[in-house]
Amino acid sequence: MSNTDFVLAVEDLTVSFDGFKAVDNLTMYIDKNELRVLVGPNGAGKTTVLDLICGKTKSTGGSIKFNNTELTKLSEHEIVRSGVGRKFQNPSIYENLTVYQNLEVSYPKGRGVFGSLTFKRTQEVEDQVRRVAADIMLTEFLDMESALLSHGQKQWLEIGMLLMQEPELLMLDEPVAGMSAKERDQTADLLNRICQNRSVIVIEHDMEFVKKIAHKVTVLHQGKILAEGPMEKVQADEKVIEVYLGH
Ligand SMILES: Nc1ncnc2c1ncn2[C@@H]1O[C@H](COP(=O)(O)OP(=O)(O)OP(=O)(O)O)[C@@H](O)[C@H]1O
Questions:
Q1: I want to staple 227 with a disulfide (CB 3.0 to 4.6 A). Which of 57, 71, 193, 237 is the partner?
Q2: 212, 188 in Cβ contact below 8 A?
Q3: Which of 46, 58, 174 to mutate to test the pocket of ligand 1 (most atoms within 8 A of CB)?
Q4: Residue limits of the ABC transporter domain (predicted)?
């Protein structure tokens, strides 16, 4: 495959589990600073696509290029180090640590030219913690034990822990599940802010929320792309209404 200007180029990606193709010859391109939403009925293959990109599941065929580096040959750890962050549905924060400490422990080790100068490094980490805390709306809560945060704030904290690593591609699986209407709106603002300097892929079922965030929507069905494009176009697509939106 040739090189592209896309941050992520997925081409002919396939994975089969005992002969069942959960992802079937999928081709999809994500731009720099694009926020793409994956939608589709249960079992369409959305989670499996993210699992393939982050290396949790190995593909049977096809290619995944991130900044023109082939990911399908790398380990999960190497994929994280190359700049891909993934958030699963359930928050995995350290409940007994403060918000500050959760962010601090997520700062990549061995980063930065001041590695040997402790005070400079400390300042570097502190600056990054404060920047991220502002992004995730938790500046006022930095000293609070994380167990005391609301469900929505815990989700934001986990996004913040990923942002500490400054990923160039961030993937989120149903980030607003269980959130209040207000928290959903705040999360939409948060995602619109953070995709200004990275690409983001979100799996989401809540179409009102999708409308607020999506630059483009990819509709998956039986491991294949049923439709792709701006929300208005996808929403008006007969096939999409039939297999997904009509329900
Ligand atoms: N490791 C696995 N082994 C066998 N089958 C799997 C595996 N992972 C996923 N599948 C199957 O692949 C299909 C796609 O699953 P996937 O979880 O990707 O769908 P989804 O679109 O994310 O659905 P949902 O909206 O329900 O999360 C399902 O039929 C699922 O049972």
A1: 237
A2: yes
A3: 46
A4: 8-247
Phi, psi angles (nearest 5°) of residue 16: -120, 140
- Say yes or no: CB of residue 223 within 6 Å of ligand 1: no
Give the integer Cα–Cα distance in Å for 232 and 211.
9
pLDDT at residue 110 in the model: 61
Residue-wise pLDDT for 49-74, tens only, equals 999 999 999 999 999 999 999 999 99
CA distances, 153 to each of 137, 178, 202, 207 (Å) = 8, 11, 18, 22
Neighbours of 214 (CB within 10 A): 22
- Give the position of tokens 């294949």: 224
**Atom 17 of ligand 1, residue of closest alpha carbon:** 47
CA of 123 to the centre of ligand 1 (A): 44
Count the Cβ atoms, other than its own, within 10 Å of residue 217: 27
